[in-house]
Q: What sequence folds into this?
């Protein structure tokens, strides 16, 4: 099982670890609330979040070990930022001749047009069309490789 885990790409392993440990933390929080208050209703939200995260983690692991994910490689063409804090909201990338846009769920320090991005999607990810480009909301992780900048 550990060998299968090590065959996964690094961004997927990181997302797996984050979801797994958050699920464990919420499970421990549920048990602590249950032990101290003896109230099942009060501990239920933590239990629900823990079950969701651990189930999501298991699903990601089984899809990843069976190669049920798609790795899309492209070049960053545009970065949409929020108006107030200037955080990255969307990334637009060019895959072949198709423009793909996806939201960013984490804070990024640096990202510029021309960076190479690898996006990892489950095979069952829904892809929507908006304004002549494709929009993806469901993805596992993405990786930015600014070392091998390519020119358009």
A:
């Amino acid at each position: 099982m550990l060998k299968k885990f090590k065959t996964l790409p690094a961004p997927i392993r990181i997302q797996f670890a984050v979801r797994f440990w958050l699920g464990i933390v919420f499970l421990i929080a549920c048990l602590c609330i249950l032990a101290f208050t003896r109230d099942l209703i009060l501990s239920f939200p933590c239990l629900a979040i823990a079950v969701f995260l651990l189930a999501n983690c298991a699903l990601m692991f089984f899809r990843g070990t069976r190669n049920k994910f798609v790795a899309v490689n492209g070049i960053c063409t545009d970065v949409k930022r929020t108006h107030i804090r200037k955080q990255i909201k969307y990334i637009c990338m060019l895959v072949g001749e198709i423009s793909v846009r996806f939201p960013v769920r984490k804070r990024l320090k640096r990202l510029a047009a021309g960076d190479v991005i690898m996006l990892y999607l489950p095979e069952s990810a829904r892809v929507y069309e908006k304004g002549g480009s494709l929009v993806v909301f469901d993805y596992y992780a993405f990786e930015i490789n600014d070392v091998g900048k390519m020119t358009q």
The chain is about 40% helix and 30% strand. Residues 18 and 87 are 22 Å apart (CA to CA). The longest strand covers residues 69-81.
